[in-house]
Amino acid sequence: MVSLERMLFPTDFSPYSMIVTEFLQDLKSAGVKEVDVLFVVNTAKLSSVSGGFDLERYVELEIRRAEEELPKLLEKLEKAGLKAKAIKPFPSGNPVSEISKISKSYDFIAMGARGRGIFKEILLGSVSEGVVRKSEIPVYVFKSKTEILESGMKCYKPCENLFAKILVAFDFSKHSQKALEYASKIAKETHGEIILLHVDEDEKCKKDDLSAVAEDLRAKGLKVTDIKASGSPAKVILSKQAEMKATTIFIGSRGMSLAKALIVGSVSDPVVRMSEVPVFVSKL
């Protein structure tokens, strides 16, 4: 039985990372009850900084910034009806490693796709991709629409109802079956629609095979649209998301279709990187 009760929320407090907080009611409706906030002092990219850099001062400033931002974030989480706390002391080091290490006792990780700290180009985007690859638990990568203003960067929600239309990339592997299990549970809780998509490069899958999976879901009271398409899996997933106006994508971290198309890194990576809507990457 899958669970989404305990969520780990890594953030650098940038607009990109904070987009997760715009979906708190959606996440709560999907079963989230507890949120632990994790701030990592990112020292991983400081090796390229020239001599004379005051590391202790940098860590001190980052911790001070986090302490200033945390109360507002925790208040927002609690106002949404979620049990919230910060993980302390704040770890320092490589964010990917620290997030992955700390996450093992949680049900899933929710994080923004990109962000920056004190240094202009310390990007959380590369961190989110690294976490997707390294994490042993599901990772929900949230995307945002952005606009550059004189006052700074503004991030907007890419959709209003996160679980209105859940596109599930399904290749009959155990990895995609796990993604479908999560999507089905959430759709049941939120009354969302499932778009069951199978991409077959060699057209070896019969339409009836996919229809049988869809009918089983409908028998459980879910609204399901099943689609079989041919082409490059990542490209088709992204194009079908836009065509069907899917509000989120669910995909397995590893898969092996009949055409051996869904291999680690070949599909989930570009989908996470290029999707305009949040992507949930399941794990086994």
List keywords for this structure.
23% strand, Rossmann fold, 9 helices
List the helices and strands and how they pair.
Elements: E1 6-10, H1 15-18, H2 24-29, E2 34-38, E3 41-42, H3 55-79, E4 83-86, E5 92-93, H4 95-102, E6 108-112, H5 124-134, E7 139-142, E8 145-149, E9 152-156, E10 165-169, H6 174-190, E11 193-199, H7 207-219, E12 223-229, H8 233-244, E13 248-252, H9 268-274, E14 279-282
Parallel strand pairs: 1-2, 1-6, 2-4, 3-5, 6-7, 10-11, 10-13, 11-12, 13-14
Antiparallel strand pairs: 7-14, 8-9
Helix pairs in contact: 4-5, 8-9
Amino-to-carboxy terminus distance: 12 Å
Mean pLDDT: 88
C-alpha Rg, in Å? 19 Å
- How many E strands? 14
* Estimated share of beta-strand residues: 15-25%
**For the report, how would you describe the main beta sheet?**
10 strands, mixed
Biggest sheet, spatial arrangement of strands:
4-2-1-6-7-14-13-10-11-12
Could you please describe the fold and organization of this structure?
By secondary structure, the chain is of the alpha/beta class. The protein has helices at 15-18, 24-29, 55-79, 95-102, 124-134, 174-190, 207-219, 233-244, 268-274, and strands at 6-10, 34-38, 41-42, 83-86, 92-93, 108-112, 139-142, 145-149, 152-156, 165-169, 193-199, 223-229, 248-252, 279-282. The protein folds into 2 domains: 6-156, HUPs (Rossmann fold); 165-282, Rossmann fold, CATH 3.40.50. The protein is built from 9 helices and 14 strands. Strand 8 and strand 9 (152-156) form a beta hairpin. Helix 4 packs across helix 5 and helix 8 (233-244) runs parallel beside helix 9. The longest helix has 25 residues, at 55-79.
